[in-house]
Design a protein that fits this description.
By secondary structure, this protein is an alpha+beta fold. The chain has helices at 3-6, 18-27, 68-73, 92-103, and strands at 7-13, 32-33, 36-42, 47-53, 58-61, 77-80, 82-83, 86-87, 89-91, 122-125, 134-140, 145-152, 155-162, 166-168.
Length: 170
């Protein structure tokens, strides 16, 4: 077995392009894994189960030497995740753990990190008195908190909130 076949590589994918890149990889015969979980989405007129990537912006690939660079030529593929000057590697066992957790039927989502949110982005607050309110991220105040603003009565109010109560606006 070659080094490239021993472990999976992680590819950074452009925002909301994970499924499209997966289709291109399938078309080109490149082994990949895109872990997806189902979440019940609420619209004004209906509810629907929707599949979301477990790891936003990432996809696992197992290319051979000839396919490695071809992966980055795909529309939506940005770069390989690097660690210590080389492509980051994920072992088969770790991929199997992800698969078994997803197949178990447990309800799961990945946890947010502060780097998941960008200045100027609109997010939804998931806890507290602002639960459900869409807010604008103004700046990161420290490791845990952002300054956000929201409008009420034609006025903009600024408040500091911890990042862990945000979710991306759908």
């Amino acid at each position: 077995m070659t080094e490239n076949m021993d472990s999976w590589k992680v590819v950074f994918i452009a925002s909301r392009q994970e499924k499209k890149v997966a289709l291109q990889l399938e078309r080109d015969g490149i082994e990949f894994y895109l872990p997806l979980y189902k979440k019940l989405q609420q619209w004004s007129d209906r509810k629907k189960w929707v599949e979301f990537p477990l790891f936003n912006g990432y996809l696992f690939v197992k290319p051979n030497k000839l396919q490695r660079d071809k992966v980055l030529e795909l529309h939506g593929a940005v770069a390989y995740v690097r660690y210590n000057g080389a492509d980051a590697k994920v072992k088969d066992k770790e991929i199997e753990i992800i698969k078994s957790v997803l197949e178990s039927g447990y309800s799961l989502e990945t946890m947010n990190t502060p780097d998941d949110f960008e200045i100027g982005e609109q997010v939804v607050v998931t806890e507290g008195p602002l639960n459900g309110q869409v807010v604008d991220i103004l700046r990161r105040n420290n490791e845990e908190h952002y300054l956000v603003s929201f409008g009420i009565l034609g006025q903009s109010i600024k408040i500091e909130l911890p990042y862990h109560i945000f979710k991306k606006q759908n």
